[in-house]
Design a protein that fits this description.
This is RHS repeat-associated core domain-containing protein. The chain is α+β, with helices and mostly antiparallel strands. The protein has 5 helices and 9 strands. The protein has 2 domains: 6-41, no CATH class; 53-200, no CATH class.
Length: 207
C-alpha cells in the first residue's frame, strides 16, 4: 500500500518515503528520503490536503530508426507512479496546427495519443517500463489548476526549436515548471523536443 507511519507524540515519520527516493536524493532534499519531520519541518508552507501527487512523465516515441525522441505529459491526482486512477493530461495538435488539450475523442494528428500516454503511465507500476518521470513538488490541486489555465489555440509544431510555436512537451514542461519552478523536462538522457521552448506556452492569468 506504500503507506508511511507517523507518530503524533514525537511529531515524526518513522518509515521511509516509499515514493521517488532517488528523486529526493538527487535534488538534495535532506528530508525527502526519510522525512522524519512532518511537512519538511514547515507545515504552514508544505501542505498536502489529500495525499495525492503529480508527475511530469516521459515516454519514447518509436520511429522507423528506433527512438525518435520522447513525448511528455502530465499526471495529477495519483497515489503513486502508475496509479490507474491518476488523471493523465496531454496538450497537442487538435487540428489546424493549433494546440489544445487532447481527449479520447480527438481526431487527426493526436488521435490515440491520450490512450497511449495512459498505457505508458500505468506501465510505471511494473518492471521494465520504458517511461520515466519526475515528481512535481506541488499539490495536485495546484497542478490541475495550472493545466486548466493553458491557453488554447496557440500555434502547434512538431519541432518548436526549428519551426516555432509549441508542442506537447512545451506544454507539459511549462505546467511542471510553473507549478514548482523545477525542470521542464525529465532527467532521463533522452531528447524531448519542445521542452526547451516551454516559456512560449501561454496561460490564462485569471486561473
Amino acid at each position: 500500500m506504500q503507506a508511511r507511519y507517523y507518530d503524533p507524540v514525537i511529531g515524526r515519520f518513522y518509515s521511509n518515503d516509499p515514493l521517488d527516493t532517488l528523486g529526493h536524493m538527487s535534488k538534495g532534499d535532506i528530508h525527502g528520503f526519510n522525512r522524519y519531520s512532518y511537512a519538511n519541518n514547515n507545515p504552514y508552507k508544505y501542505i498536502d490536503p489529500d495525499g495525492f501527487d503529480s508527475f511530469l512523465v516521459s515516454r519514447p516515441l518509436k520511429g522507423f530508426l528506433g527512438n525518435a525522441g520522447n513525448h511528455n505529459f502530465i499526471v495529477h491526482n495519483a497515489d503513486s507512479p502508475g496509479d490507474p486512477n491518476g488523471t493523465v493530461r496531454f496538450f497537442g495538435d487538435v487540428g489546424n496546427d493549433t494546440m489544445g488539450e487532447v481527449n479520447a475523442n480527438t481526431e487527426g494528428f493526436s488521435a490515440g495519443t491520450l490512450q497511449t500516454d495512459t498505457a505508458a503511465w500505468q506501465s510505471l507500476s511494473t518492471e521494465g517500463s520504458e517511461a520515466s518521470f519526475r515528481q512535481i513538488d506541488a499539490t495536485d490541486e495546484a497542478v490541475a489548476a495550472i493545466a486548466d489555465s493553458v491557453q488554447g489555440g496557440q500555434e502547434y509544431s512538431a519541432i518548436p526549436a526549428i519551426q516555432g510555436g509549441v508542442n506537447s512537451n512545451s506544454a507539459a514542461g511549462a505546467i511542471a515548471n510553473r507549478a514548482d519552478g523545477g525542470a521542464p523536462r525529465v532527467d532521463n538522457g533522452q531528447n524531448q523536443p519542445g521542452a526547451g521552448q516551454h516559456e512560449r506556452v501561454e496561460f490564462r492569468e485569471n486561473n
